């Protein structure tokens, strides 16, 4: 069981590292006002783009450990559903890793805007949207399916989670975070740029909390 805990801790560290990386890559005071056409990246320093890129790349593999932790917490309930969550988690962060790995380079292109002809510059951005930004939509679909299987497995019973853990599924946390971020822009400009990572920080934290409760129950028995 110690391996299960270690995997969860690694996942939590991954959410922090990638979250910090994405914050460096995306945050500037103008992020909400300059959201169109990737203009906000022009307000992020080149130093921050480089720092954010490498922090995120270092952290991404730890997400796979985090989903192995979730699999181990779920497998006693229904192995097929648990494997579905694991497979979708791996797909999500393989896709997410490709996307996050492109952001630093995109930022350098935005910084070169004045040195590129307007037509060429817009073509580059359009190509980026077609090839890479579309991955965000894929990621959302995968996370939605993952969350559905996650909830189903927990509510069926027999997992190492209490049933209330079903509430702490990624898509619901993500939606709640978006709503809060939109209602409170002063908070949203810090939270929304790292949305998937702040979501998983909560998921992994709650999962480790549930793991500790489960271990205490076993010891008391």
Structural account:
78% of the residues lie in helices and 0% in strands. The chain contains seven helices and no strands. The chain is elongated, with a radius of gyration of 19 Å. Helix 3 (79-111) packs antiparallel against helix 4 and helix 5 packs across helix 7. It is mainly α. The mean pLDDT is 93.
Q: Total helix count?
A: 7
Q: List segments where confidence is low: pLDDT < 50 over at least 5 consecutive residues.
A: none
Number of strands: 0
Which outline best applies? elongated
String of helices and strands: HHHHHHH
> Which structural class do the helices and strands define?
mainly alpha
Described by strand count, sense and barrel closure, the largest sheet is: none
Topology at a glance:
Blueprint: H1 2-26, H2 46-74, H3 79-111, H4 118-156, H5 170-183, H6 185-191, H7 195-220
Helix pairs in contact: 1-2, 1-7, 2-3, 3-4, 5-6, 5-7
List keywords for this structure.
221 residues; mainly alpha; 7 helices; 78% helix; elongated
Can you give me a brief rundown of this structure?
This protein is mainly α and 221 residues long. The chain contains seven helices and no strands.
